[in-house]
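By convention, the token line describes the chain's fold. To illustrate:
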Amino acid sequence: MTPHARIGATPLADFAAALFAAAGSHATEARIVADHLVEANLVGHDSHGVIRVPKYLDWVADGGLVPNRSARLVVDAGALAAVDGDFGYGQVIGRQAMAIAAERARVHGMAAVGIRNSGHLGRIGAWPEQLAEAGLVSVHFVNTSGFGILVAPFGGSDRRLSANPVAAGAPGPDGPIVLDIATSMTAEGKIQVARNKGERLPPGQVLDGKGNPTNEPAEFYRDPPGAILPFGGHKGSGLSLFCEILAGSLTGGGSSHPRNPTAWRLVNNMLTIAFDPARLGADGGFAADVARLAEWVRASRPAQAGGDVLLPGEIERRMKAERSAAGIPLDPETCRQLAAAAARAGVAVPAAIAEVAHD
């Protein structure tokens, strides 16, 4: 078996933060972005973890991603607000926008906040988590403006839509209940992970450039490029279309289209709708009802002996406990990419990564 690096979350985040600082981010921003990426690794979403660091640095170098930007309020109408990210790091813009959503939801009982022109927002589940930890219920719709067109529509064979995640969150009896899904069969980052690991993809996820099914990650990146299929056929495709409308058309960020002026850079747009359950007539029974629902669902007889019935977000909590104790695994190709980025930036590489990168 190919050896993987195992590295603790703190040294990995310190390393990533040093790379972002070397690329021009101030210390606070570098730490926010690094912590967000490492948290994605901790909870098992490696496609949105430190594998993204070299790409982010490339985007900074070519001007597509701009360090040290903040969410700029462009619509301020009480419960309705919109921010422009000015192409800054999405981990910073998203965090600031969720703070606005939380504050407005507490005042008005609910809030709708649009984000446009943000850099990559990272693991979208982080945003409903942030609001759930503040006691709020939320739903989130995301698109890109053109750079991230990767998905074939239902009945189609080439790229027309983005992966277009949908997320939702609520306070739960054992921590936030968080749904975080792409409307595509898989995230493009997971294709990257499979390619780096030398693994094949599960069947039924990807088409090659001729519109034929393939399980080879490399086929997705050839010329002409392949496409990801929507999940659930027409269901995922229809939901993806509404992500384009809600996150793109409605926020002013634009739906995904190759002729958009921002299509050359990765831009995320997101619509967040947040609710304060205490203000919606739950009469103080919201938490008790969610706990009862969770207990009822978990009590279902497992389909397989010894299996579990899990709520959304529980796999991530289990993975975080495991990786916090054992360290985060990084495949050799990701280690090589990180080491190469560090060499260009003049940043020291952690021994665990350097050892695997040079094998």
